[in-house]
Amino acid sequence: MTKHILTIIFFTAALCLPLTAQATESPEAPEATTIEDARGEIAVTQQGKNIKVQNACGKTLQVYNVTGALVATYRIDSDDKAITLNVGRGCYIVKVGDVTRKITINH
């Protein structure tokens, strides 16, 4: 029970942290947002339900809902991996290696 409470507190705190995002503009991807960790190692790009992960070969992408429940896990098997998430609308926590970010699915 304590583990579940700590997990919920962790994810709630993660949602409150400021998110550094750099919007990328291109004709075919007007809503794309690039989120990169401070060291510039792992990059996560989101457009709708499509997630692109760069520089994370051999790592695992984990998707959590806002209550802290793991809803999806994907193995990153290349340095440039595209994944289509099979989740509904809402806010999610995406974790790749030691990089954790919040994403929003609107479609």
Overview of this protein structure:
- It contains one helix and nine strands.
- The strands form two sheets. The chain has a five-stranded antiparallel β-sheet with strand order 1-2-3-4-7, with no helix packed on it.
- The chain is globular, with a radius of gyration of 14 Å.
- With about 110 residues, it is mainly β.
- The model is unreliable at about 20-25 and about 35-40 (pLDDT under 50).
Largest sheet: 5 strands, antiparallel
Order of helix and strand elements from N to C terminus:
HEEEEEEEEE
Average pLDDT over all residues: 78
Low-confidence stretches: 19-27, 36-40
- Number of helices in the DSSP assignment: 1
Structural class: mainly beta
Estimate the global geometry from the Cα principal axes: globular
Spatial order of the strands in the main sheet?
Answer: 1-2-3-4-7
The percent range for helix content is 10-25%
Head-to-tail CA distance between termini: 34 Å
How big is the Rg? Answer: 14 Å
How much beta, percentage-wise? 35-45%
Number of strands: 9
Question: Outline of this structure?
Answer:
Helix content is 14%, strand content 44%. The protein is mainly beta. The strands form 2 sheets. The chain has a 5-stranded antiparallel beta sheet, with no helix packed on it. Strands 6-5-8-9 form a 4-stranded antiparallel beta sheet, with helices on one face.
